[in-house]
Amino acid sequence: MSKIMEWVDARLPVTELLKSQATEYPTPKNLNYWWNFGSLALLVLIIMIATGLFLAMHYKADANQSFDVVEHIMRDVNYGWLLRYAHANGASFFFMVVYVHILRGMYYGSYRQPREILWWFGIIIFFMMMGTAFMGYVLPWGQMSYWGAAVITNLMSAIPVIGEDLVVWIWGGFSVGDPTLNRFFALHFLLPLVIFGVVILHLWALHAVHSNNPDGIDLHDAKDSIPFHPYYTIKDFYGYGIFMIIFCIFVFYAPNFFLEPDNYIPANPMQTPAHIVPEWYFLPFYAILRSIDFLGSFSKLAGVLAMVGAIMILFVLPFLDRSPVRSFRYRPLSKQLFWIFVVDCIVLGWVGYNPADATIFNGALPLIIIGRTCTAIYFGYFFLLWAITALDIEKHQPVPKSI
Amino acid sequence: MVTESDESRRDFLTLATGAVGAAGVAGAAWPFVKSWSPSADVLSQATTEVDVSGLAPGQMITVPWQGKPVFVLRRTPAQIEAARKADNEALPDPAKDADRAKKPEYLVLLALCTHLGCVPQPIGTGNFGGFLCPCHGSHYDTSGRIRQGPAPKNLPVPHYEFKDEKTLVIGKV
Amino acid sequence: MNCQEVIKFRSVVKRVSRMVRSAAVLLVAAASLTAAVPGDAQASSGAAVPPKQPWSFLGVFGQFDQAALKRGAQVAVQSCLTCHSIKYIKFDQLRQLGFSELEVKAMAEGTGRTKKDPLTSSMDPTAAKESFGVVPPDLSLITKARKGYEDYVYGILVGYASDSDLALANRVMADGKIGAEEAKEVASALLLDGHYPDKMAETLKRMIGGENFNRYFPGNFFAMPQPLMDGAVAYTDGTENSKVQLARDVVTFLAWAAEPTQMERKSLGIKVILYLVVLTIMLYAVKRRIWAKVH
User: Fold this and answer.
1) Which chains neighbour A (Cβ–Cβ under 8 Å, 3 or more pairs)?
2) Reported ipTM
3) B30 and B47 belong to one structural domain
4) Residues C31-47: tens digit of each pLDDT
5) What is the C-alpha separation between C16 and C39, in angstroms, rounded?
6) Domains of chain B: total
7) Is residue B109 helix, strand or coil?
8) Minimal CA–CA distance to C73: which of C227, C245, C256?
9) Contact flag A54-B21 (C-beta cutoff 8 Å)
10) Which residues 247-286 on chain C approach chain B with CB closer than 8 angstroms?
11) DSSP states of chain C
12) What residue ranges of chain A are covered by domains with CATH 1.20.810.10?
């Protein structure tokens, strides 16, 4: 056995790689369970690629056939229902896991120097996930697929001068149709593999600068760290167990919980469903898009810019936060802002779920007002985080010297 | 303090957990593997039912079975007689007519020439009153046996059963 | 517990209580928001939400009532198929519900088809559009394709105006207007919003005029005339063939037709989850032992 490994190592240093990246890779010993979500995201990505690959072996991208083919998978293909439900629910769980992963990074200052590039790779992954999820949702060619595709592609028409032509180019026709479905399928197949590549870059960047930790301090002392394997491999596996239980409860017993009933109606270009909503993971951004409605003819473009800006602003977050301390654990004001931000995102999601003209308190308060306020709070978070740290308003608590 | 019994217990626990986990991964692979097997709609095409009550002696129909053509021939007494006579001749692929037709009256053949897969011409063609493959000139007799030409084997007889007097079921359920 | 453990325990308690507190804040915020919402889109469009029914096939251990499935298939074939298709189900598949091959053949031939054909309607879609204004939708996925699922489909089937509802409408509208007391009576009988008497009068007028009123359909007026009546289908197993029973049976059948693999899914699910629980407990034990060395 060791002879074989010697032979291999002389040509490809596998043992050395495992040593430096796992069995001797130093990891902070105080990582809490919020640090499990990164490896959970990798698990979901693998589940998505595996189920997606096998679904693609049965699927046909064709406006006249796709709806029937999905039902063929559900009814006729052996375990086709399992592949499809795991894939459809996997998308929701992917976003859940990634949202927690992003918020964990925001709370413990994992985006701070020297982890900016690591953070950017993460945002790129998130952005590509959104594109992949959107195009995947079009493939069953139900009513929500069709109208979701119509609404989202129409966003491009907000771009001045070239917008209208651009939309026709994306559609490959004068409306969402067969050519659109075909190219979305091709991209939906390709993008996850690109994501996988960026995940490797993300991990490379991580291993170059090492993990942040709940205290947000640099590791000085060998006593602060433990090898990744076996400590964090087993902790990640334990997390996988918990995750799979929850995931399987949905796949086997509430598989349609995240799906809209309207998507079991075949796409009909002649009739829009009464109430169209994007998937839950897009709702906060959808609410931001709709909240800009007070700028007249400029509203459409501004809404699109605000929505894209809501993600793009994450790129500059490392430079907005000027605090000498990374972790919000020792930053009382930032901590409060953070929780306001979390609640704000949930409220935005709820606003996005409801019809644009909905009201509460018997018509006294239009939801659009709440939407605008929450959009302001969303961007306000980034501004205030800059303000309290750059202007030295926040007085941080004492930070421990070592873990 | 870590005692020796603790150590061995941990080894056992770790091994057992690893084994259970590996079994789970193997189990999870099963649905993926199984998804390649013929699906329910394909399986429902595994058999073809043919109503043979309308066939006159000497009449032949071609029916699709699992995407392939099958000849169903109601033979005349003369055709049966010719087939039986040839039983004792030197055949390239020896077979008794009685083994090829469950009911002498009905001949059921997978109509793909054993040479290169062309569909032979209907009954009454070729030098033996049976079937002539037009592609390379293979002559089959009234039992579907190869008699002359490049084909190496007789036309295969698919699995079939008579469900009742008039219903022929081709293929296995 | 030694001193170090006490400190560790305290910090865990503190962390847990902090997490509980923030979770509570989030929950209260979310709850106060949802409480403020007047209801979902359906309620605001003027139709009542159909009440939940105790379907035997729901839940982790739910199973189909086999007798109801067979009766429901009979109702679907004899009644629904007149106008609607159930194209993802083939006659042959009905054997899974306990019909014999001969029974299936008879059912298929009764509608002019063979047993390998799907359950399609013999009605021409263009003709249907002419007489009803819409093409009757395929019913294969109907219990998954509507908010409220099987409860909604059942609600629609039993939600039409009865003779007594019509009598009430005639009585109330005899003088051409609706009084406050009458509004209350109509609201509770037809599940309409009592706050808008004008809208209610309009509804009653159309109902008296012969339009298809349905209390559970958003907008209240439905293209489909009442499809099931008492005794519309003759049962052979001695079950009473009331409208309500026919509706219950056919919805059970449609719930099966929407996903024939659902029982396979549920029975596999129990095994998978039990396995995962065992594996996770083992992983936790291993994790505890490995981490025991870290101070």
Assistant:
1) B, C
2) 0.94
3) no
4) 555 554 544 433 344 57
5) 35
6) 2
7) strand
8) C256
9) no
10) 275-276, 278-279, 282-283, 285-286
11) --HHHHHHHHHHHHHHHHHHHHHHHHHHHHHHHHHHS---HHHHTT-PPPPP---TT-STT----HHHHHHHHHHHHHTGGGT--EEEEEGGGGGGGT--HHHHHHHHHHTT--TTSEE--SS-HHHHHHHHSSPPPP-TTTTTSSTTHHHHHHHHHH-B--HHHHHHHHHHHTTSS--HHHHHHHHHHHT--TT-HHHHHHHHHHHHTT--BBTTSTTSB-SSPP---TTSS--SSS----HHHHHHHHHHHHHHHH-TTHHHHHHHHHHHHHHHHHHHHHHHHHHHHHHTT--
12) 30-276
Instruction: Return the residue of C nearest to A273 by Cα.
Output: C146
Residues of chain B contacting A75 with CB distance shorter than 8 Å: 40
Locus of tokens 């770790």: B14
Residues B14 and B48 in one domain: no
Residues B73 and B146 occupy one common structural domain: yes
Q: Dump pLDDT digits (tens) for C72-130.
A: 999 999 999 989 999 999 999 999 999 998 999 999 988 888 888 999 988 887 888 88
Given a contact as 3+ CB pairs under 8 Å, which chains touch B?
A, C
Which domain covers residue B4, as residue numbers?
1-37
Q: What are phi and psi of C59, to 5 degrees?
A: 85, 165
Q: What distance in Å separates the CA atoms of residue A41 and residue B24, rounded to the nearest whole number?
A: 20
φ/ψ of B73, rounded to 5, equals -120, 130
Low-confidence ranges of chain A (pLDDT < 50): none
CB B149 within 8 A of CB B101: no
The pTM of the whole model exceeds 0.90: no
The predicted pLDDT at position C122 comes to 81
How buried is residue A313: exposed, middle or buried, by Cβ count under 10 Å (0-12/13-18/19+)?
Answer: middle
Asked if residue B113 and residue B55 are part of one domain, the reply reads yes
What CATH number is given to the structural domain containing B127?
Answer: 2.102.10.10
Write down the CATH number for the domain with range A30-276: 1.20.810.10
Residues B136 and B68 in one domain: yes
Give the model's confidence band at C4: pLDDT under 50 very low, under 70 low, under 90 confident, else very high: low
Residues B33 and B51 in one domain: no
B10 with B33, same domain: the answer is yes
Mean pLDDT of C1-20: 60
Q: Which residue has the tokens 């605000």?
A: A306
Q: What is the pLDDT of residues A215-258, one digit of tens each?
A: 999 988 788 999 999 999 999 999 999 999 999 999 999 999 99
**Closest CA–CA distance from residue B17 to any residue of chain C (Å):** 6
Are B17 and B54 found together in one domain?
A: no
